[in-house]
Each structure stands twice: as structure tokens, then as C-alpha cells.
Design brief:
The structure is a homotetramer of 134-residue chains. Chain A is an all-alpha fold and 134 residues long. The first copy, chain A, has five helices and no strands. In chain A, α2 runs antiparallel to α3, α2 packs antiparallel against α5 and α3 runs antiparallel to α4.
């Protein structure tokens, strides 16, 4: 998604000293994680052992919703409010950590959980990195 | 939305000692606030003085996205994770506070901001109340 | 959600001859249905017979996402585009019909599916009614 | 987002003869367009001539919401319903066309609208291509 960087570059006002590399990385990680978690919830739903994956599905759905909201918030720069940004990043980090922890338990058996756990860890790290710059 | 209560009542497993009244109130406040904030952003956009309302619009959009995600997370009970719930409630409370603070500045001049500020304060309080029970 | 009506009443420009009663009813039905479908997906996930409810869960999740998007689109009036409104209402009607059809199959056995099917039918009808006024 | 392809490849059941290349392209276009439209709405909001961009902002917001919902629906394969898929793709195509048409009007003056119009055209085409395979 190089368009993320294009949109940051073409923002008409000053971005206020934000670390644009960390911001772009976090936005892209959030949208990627939202997609992957939606897909992983659905893959778990199609496993024969779905009854053992219900916590994984729920965690996937939470993570998808929170990543999507976080990606949207981070895509806005007008009237920036550091308290809201920090709080939503903390929520996103918590959701990604919970989902990665859960998916890692099934990563050996279900490759979609392995792909998902990796996307969640990348997003968790991107949130941590961006929080460190605020 | 009495259907919120119906859905809590018909959940097939134990809700784990959650305060269902506080939970239902918070879910309803989140969905109400998401709708009102989407509408308030659009009303601000149609004001002749839109150039003075850009921070309000942005805060409305963030609040709408975060309330919608929070309402969805709170509607799930399977595989409950208190860390994710707490973090998303903190983010929702911060977004509602920021939006209420901003809308209250224009409440005398724009009645939609008055209605919106009230919905945000209700949701902020509902998040605070639910957090106190976790 | 009488706040829906308050927000329509306080919109600063002309609403362009829209049927505000049909519009308010449809907005409220969309947000109600989004909440109920998120909750029903989660209730199905906690049923012992979850393996027989996977299509129901998937349909619930689609309906929740589409209703939430439709409710947000309908909450905006600035720069109204009838083609987008009509297309999203058609999608919402299709999703609500599919979810109601599916949930009705399990309504006798699972009361959450009964509550959900009713919310979906209300929203399907509200979309049909609003489409008839466009 | 090669993870989109990874998630399709690791789906545990048969994908039912879907054109996976067209599906992956459409999912990626939806998530890209959702991000770009959220960012373009915010960039328009920060333009000095925001009062002349209100229709553009509204169209951006609709397109972001509909693309996000469509991307989530397309990420699910369990219990596939062609009527819902077709209807949401039609809505997404309409929203992308409306947003591209609007952003193209300002593409010479605002580079973010140029980037956004291109993302919307890609997503409109991806929806058209996927619809042709259903």
C-alpha cells in the first residue's frame, strides 16, 4: 500500500512533526491485520474442529474491528488529539497481542492461524513503535 | 434498543458475573453515539462556517469509528478477555470525552452539536460505569 | 434512539424532500440490526452445536458489517447521491433477507436467532420502505 | 498485501471455483480504497477551500465505509451467498464510481484527490471484474 505514503505526502497542512515512517507503517499494519483477522475468523469457522476454535474466532473479530477503527483514526491528521490517538493505539496493541497469543496456539495445526499471528505481531509492534514517538 | 437486553438474556452460556445492566447500557450508548457522531460530522459539513468546524468533524469521525468498534466488542461474550475489553473501553471513553468537549464549544450555536455532546457524555459515563465493574 | 430524529431535525440545510419518518426508521433499524447480528454471531459461537451454525455466523457477520455501513451512509445528507444510497440500501436489504432466512431456520431451537431474525426482517422492511420513497 | 493471497491459499475448505486472482485483487482494492478515502476526506477538511469540498468529503466517507464492509464480506467464504456478494459489490462499485467522479474534479488542484480518484477507479474496476466472474 504505497498509497498510504502518497496520502501522507499530499496532506495539505503540516503533519506536526509526526514520524511519518512509523505512522505509515502502523496504518498499513492496521489495515492488513483487519483483513487477515476477518479471513482467519472465517477459516476457523470452516475447520472441522470449529468447536475448539471459538475463542480464536472471537478474538479475531475483536482484533479486526479495533484494527479497522485504529487505521481510520490514524489516517486523519486534522485537529489531532494525542489522548485519543494514544488510547486507540493502546487498545489496538492489546487486541493484536491477544489475537497473536491465541492464534499462535493453533499455528502448527492451522496455517491460517500462523499467517494471522504474524500479521498481529507486526501490528502490535507497529503500535508499540508509533506510541514510542508520541 | 430493548433488543440489546433480549440478546444478553438469550446468550446460551453463562455471562460470567458481568453487570448486565451496565453492559446493556454501554452497548446501547456506543451504538447511539456512533450514529449521532456520524450525523453531527455531516451537519457540521453543511454549516456555512464549516471552516471553523474542521476539528469538530474530525473528532466526530474518530468517535463514531471507536464507538462502533467498542459496541461490537461488547456484544461478544465468548472467550472474554478483560484486557482487550478494558483497553477498548478506555479508548471509547477518551474519544467520547474529546468529542463532547469539542461539541460543547459549539452547542449554543449549533443544536446538532448540543445533541451530540449529550450523547457523547452519556457514552463516556456508560464506559466509566462499566469499567468500574470489571 | 430518539436522537436519530433529533439529528434529522437539527440538520442545518434542507433535507431535500426526503421522507424523514422512513429515513429515521431505516437508520434506527440498521444500527439495531448491526448490534443484534454481532451478538447473534457470538451466541451461535457459544452453542454446543456450533458446527451446524457456521453459515448462520457468517451471514450474521456480513449483515452486521453491511447494516453498520448503511446506517452511516443514511446518517449523511450533504452532497446526497441517490445512486449510492439506492445501491447500499439494496445490499442491506439482501443481507438482512439472507440473515433472516437463515436465523429463522434455528428460531425454534435458539431464541437469539428468533430475536435476530425479527430485527433482520424489520431492517429488510425499512430498507424496502425507504427505497420506495427515493 | 500478499497476506490476502496467503489467507485464500490457507482456507481449509474448497473455495468453490471462485476466481482467486480476481477475488484477491478486489479484497486488496477495497482495503486500499477504504484507507485512501478516509485520508482524502481528512485532507479535504484541511484545505483552505474546505467549503467547496463538502460533497467530496461526504462521498469519501461513504466510499470508505462501503469499501471496508465489502472487503470484510469478500474475506469470508464459509456459507457463501451469491446474492449478498453481488449486491455488496454493486454498492461498492457505485460508491467508488461516485467518489472517483467527484475527486477527479479536484485532481488538478489537490493531489490527494488525484491519488484517491485513482484508488477508487482501481476498486471500481476490481468490483466490475469480480462481478463478471460470479
Amino acid at each position: 500500500m504505497s498509497t498510504t505514503t502518497d496520502m501522507l505526502r499530499t496532506y495539505p497542512k503540516d503533519l506536526g512533526g509526526v514520524d511519518t515512517a512509523a505512522l505509515a507503517a502502523c496504518i498499513e499494519a492496521c489495515f492488513e491485520c483487519a483483513q487477515v483477522c476477518s479471513a482467519c475468523a472465517d477459516s476457523c469457522l470452516s475447520e472441522d474442529m470449529v468447536a475448539e476454535l471459538t475463542k480464536c474466532i472471537r478474538t479475531n473479530l475483536d482484533c479486526a474491528d479495533i484494527c479497522a477503527a485504529t487505521g481510520a483514526v490514524l489516517s486523519r491528521h486534522t485537529g489531532y488529539d494525542v489522548n485519543v490517538t494514544r488510547a486507540v493505539l493502546e487498545a489496538c496493541r492489546a487486541a493484536c497481542k491477544a489475537c497473536a497469543d491465541e492464534c499462535e496456539k493453533h499455528a502448527d495445526m492451522h496455517e491460517h492461524c500462523k499467517v494471522c499471528a504474524e500479521a498481529c505481531r507486526r501490528c502490535e509492534q507497529a503500535c508499540t513503535d508509533l506510541l514510542a514517538t508520541l
